[in-house]
Design a protein that fits this description.
By secondary structure, this protein is mainly alpha-helical. It is built from 14 helices and no strands. The chain is globular, with a radius of gyration of 23 Å. 28% of the residues are buried.
Length: 295
């Protein structure tokens, strides 16, 4: 018996049929052969997601007049390049926080102080964190530093080693579970803000990191969470927009990485200005000035 026999499932379409569907819904296809080649490399379902901002408000099944297949592809390419750009900057933030946390904690509570739940707020989360660490060790068992510490130190990992196997999401939760005075010291020392901001920012950026790592869509998408913004920024920026996340990313980068990201963003937006709508990623008309004001 087919477990799904009571459900109606769409019939699989050929690449040619997929293209006809787009044409029937108002998409202008300039080069059919080129379009077919694109659909052979980029899943139809993934590609049409970039057309959600191009649908008619009165009929969500049809596209606005002038929508071309090349525009759908351009939005997809812009989003891909944007994710690649952000993942590099996110890596810098992630590595910085690994360093901040491990250095401060090991010097204040000893290299193995992270194993003691008394050095954290929530003992339940701490227990889960320690269990997850064992899983991360196993997932990275072929890494030379894991092999080295298991062989030479009987599997005892000082915090500055243990923290290197954490995912960004786990790192974010670890920071949130630090004692208040530890979070405050790290936030004030390195970023001159209260930890309520860095907690929120790390949570937001961990979410963006997961989207980028799994090739998800950023263009035209609202964030599932909103980062804590300063009062001045809240007046101009949608808190659940991608630009809000990029703002906090800039706040956590050092000056060199911030300049590199700004120049790269400017170049990418200029390259695709004919196809993108800045408001679809939450950018304001004066987005460059807002970022410059962060310095």
């Amino acid at each position: 018996m087919d477990l799904h026999e009571n459900f109606s499932v769409k019939v699989a379409k050929t690449f040619e049929e997929q293209l006809i569907i787009l044409q029937n819904r108002g998409v202008l296809v300039e080069d059919s052969e080129c379009a077919i080649n694109t659909l052979q490399r980029v899943n139809y379902y993934r590609l049409v997601a970039y057309g959600l901002t191009l649908k008619n408000s009165s009929n969500s099944d049809t596209y606005m007049e002038g929508t071309t297949f090349s525009k759908l592809v351009s939005l997809y390419e812009f989003d891909k390049k944007l994710r690649q750009l952000l993942i590099g900057a996110l890596e810098s933030v992630e590595i910085a926080f690994r360093t901040h946390i491990a250095y401060h904690h090991a010097h204040n509570y000893s290299p193995l102080g992270y194993e003691n739940p008394a050095h954290f707020q929530d003992p339940t989360y701490h227990e889960r964190f320690i269990k997850n660490l064992e899983r991360f060790y196993d997932e990275n068992k072929t890494e030379l530093f894991i092999i080295h510490h298991r062989k030479k130190y009987d599997g005892v990992f000082p915090f500055w080693v243990a923290i290197e196997v954490l995912s960004f999401s786990t790192l974010s939760m670890l920071f949130k579970n630090l004692l208040h005075h530890d979070k405050l010291f790290i936030s004030k020392t390195y970023y001159n803000v209260h930890y309520k901001y860095t907690e929120s920012w790390l949570h937001t950026l961990a979410t963006i990191r997961n989207v980028c790592a799994h090739h998800g869509r950023l263009y035209g998408k609202k964030l599932p969470i909103s980062p804590q913004l300063f009062k001045k920024q809240r007046k101009k920026i949608r808190s659940n927009s991608l630009f809000a996340a990029i703002i906090v990313l800039f706040k956590l980068l050092n000056e060199k990485d911030r300049n590199i990201l700004l120049i790269s963003l400017q170049a990418l937006i200029d390259e695709y200005k004919e196809y993108i709508n800045l408001s679809d990623i939450g950018f304001t008309h004066d987005w460059e000035s807002i970022i410059e004001d962060l310095k």
